[in-house]
Amino acid sequence: SPFGLSFSANFTLILVNRSAAAGGSFAVMCYAPVSYVTYVVTMLFQGVGDGSQPLISLAHGRGDAMRVRRLFRLACLFSAAVGAACMAGVFLTRGWVGILFGASDAVARSVRDILPLFLLGFLPLSFAREATSFFYATEKNTAAYLLIYGEPLCLFLLLLFLPAACGITGTWLSVLLSQLLTGIFAAYLYRRISAGEASVQ
Fold first, then answer.
1. What are phi and psi for residue 121, nearest 5 degrees?
2. DSSP code of 63?
3. Distance CA 45, CA 108 (A)
4. For 44-186, where are the E strands, in sequence order?
5. What's the predicted TM-score (pTM) here?
6. For residues 87 and 55, what is the distance between their CA atoms, to the nearest angstrom?
């Protein structure tokens, strides 16, 4: 699972760059600053998950289900707070993001306009990352694999038809929709696994 998490951001980068390239070099230049910002935020989510994973794993090994749930909730809340803070911070400074990375005025304006689409995916992505860490900390490896490799697969499938239907906006929407669907799927897996464990107890 950690191997897949380390490479998932790169999968996204490759897929979106290939799709954006079909829209011309301007679209690729616009995505570059966006990808730098989103990568940093994704790594923050992963850092929270990596920090909570040993604690959750220890509680799971001791058979303390209540502490496992408490730690997971705490990790989710902290990750969501990080996501919300990043959303607010990046949104308020979105006009400067392109300039910060040395982009031209035209690219900087386009980055300012498309960044909000990417920001909307931060919260579902934060939950998906924490759920992934929770699953592999509690020996639910199949669920962790489904989330890790399901996100780039979902993005790949969306990129097959959304850009054709909506142009370059379809590429940006594909990223957002893949993160939303991954967050929903993570919630579904967590609820199903929790219900299964409750019925066993």
1. -85, -5
2. T
3. 26
4. none
5. 0.90
6. 27
Q: Please say whether the beta carbons of 115 and 37 come within 8 A.
A: yes
Cβ contacts of residue 165 below 8 Å, gap of 6+? none
Contact partners, residue 70, CB within 8 Å, separation at least 6: none
Place of tokens 């994973």: 53
Span 145-201, pLDDT tens digits: 999 999 999 999 999 999 999 999 999 999 999 999 999 999 999 999 887 665 545
CA 34, 37, 43, 46 dihedral sign is negative
Pull the structure tokens for residue 199.
């019925």
First to last CA, the chain: 27
Q: Within a 13 Å sphere around the CA of 155, how many CA atoms are in the beta-carbon half? A: 25
Rg of the chain on CA atoms, in Å: 18
What the block records as the tokens of 28 is 């690729």
DSSP string of 118-159? HHTTHHHHHHHHHHHHHHHHTT-HHHHHHHHHHHHHHHHHHH
Tokens 């951001």 belong to residue = 9
Q: What are the phi and psi torsion angles at 3 (to 5°)?
A: -60, -50
Q: What is the DSSP letter of 201?
A: -
pLDDT in tens, 31-72: 999 999 999 999 999 999 999 999 999 999 999 999 999 999
